């Protein structure tokens, strides 16, 4: 691949990958830049293994590399074993739909690390609990539990900060 093509590709995918890296780097911009650089290096070094022939599958392949890079860079491993809980799904009141991306990202920062990672993988990135369990070396039930707890924590934060749920109940 020539230098100009590499640069064009990097310009195309970097914003998406940087956004992913920021979430997994706890919004530490320097760490996110490092993760982005590591991800791009892995992408360029493994380009011959990519089977994507169109832009959308290629972006998905790059996204997966960035997520795997971010997860593998974590110094702490998830070691807490959790009991299976019933998953409770909350729907957001329509008033919350007016929140900006930065507001939502600030709310996510307040979650415990494990909950934030699983929430990001499941809700934002669209991975299944089976895939998340594979990424994090935990059981699918643990992934579900982390997500449930993340949703409950977000609901508590919203009750405190925005008083939305209290009005509805």
Report the order of strands and helices: HHHHHHHH
Domains, number: 2
If helices are DSSP runs of H or I spanning 4 or more residues, what is the number of helices? 8
What's the CATH topology name of the largest domain? Arc Repressor Mutant, subunit A
Stretches with pLDDT under 50, minimum 5 residues: 75-95, 165-169
Superfamily (CATH H level) name of the largest domain: Winged helix-like DNA-binding domain superfamily/Winged helix DNA-binding domain
CATH class of the largest domain: Mainly Alpha
The total count of strands amounts to 0
How would you sum up the major sheet? none
Radius of gyration over C-alpha positions, nearest whole angstrom: 18 Å
Percentage of β-strand residues: under 5%
Mean pLDDT: 78
Range of helix content: 55-70%
Class derived from helix and strand content? mainly alpha
What does this structure look like?
The chain is an all-alpha fold and 169 residues long. It folds into two domains: 3-73, RNA polymerase sigma factor, region 2, helix turn helix motif (Rna Polymerase Sigma Factor, Chain: A), CATH 1.10.1740.10; 94-168, Arc Repressor Mutant, subunit A (Orthogonal Bundle). The protein contains eight helices and no strands. The chain has helices spanning 3-24, 29-45, 55-73, 101-109, 113-124, 129-136, 140-162, 164-168. Helix 2 packs across helix 3 (55-73). The longest helix has 23 residues, at 140-162. The chain starts with a helix and ends with a helix.
């Amino acid at each position: 691949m020539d230098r100009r093509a590499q640069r064009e590709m990097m310009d195309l995918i970097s914003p998406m990958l940087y956004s992913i890296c920021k979430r997994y780097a706890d919004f530490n911009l320097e760490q996110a830049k490092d993760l982005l650089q590591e991800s791009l290096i892995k992408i360029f070094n493994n380009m011959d293994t990519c089977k994507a022939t169109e832009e959308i599958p290629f972006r998905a392949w790059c996204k997966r590399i960035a997520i795997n890079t971010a997860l593998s860079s974590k110094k702490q491993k998830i070691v807490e074993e959790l009991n299976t809980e019933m998953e409770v799904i909350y729907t957001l009141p329509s008033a919350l739909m007016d929140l900006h991306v930065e507001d939502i990202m600030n709310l996510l920062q307040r979650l415990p690390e494990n909950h934030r990672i699983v929430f990001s993988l499941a809700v934002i990135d669209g991975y299944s609990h089976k895939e998340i369990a594979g990424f994090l070396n935990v059981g699918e039930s643990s992934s579900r539990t982390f997500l449930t707890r993340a949703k409950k924590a977000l609901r508590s934060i919203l009750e405190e900060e925005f008083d939305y749920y209290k009005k509805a109940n």
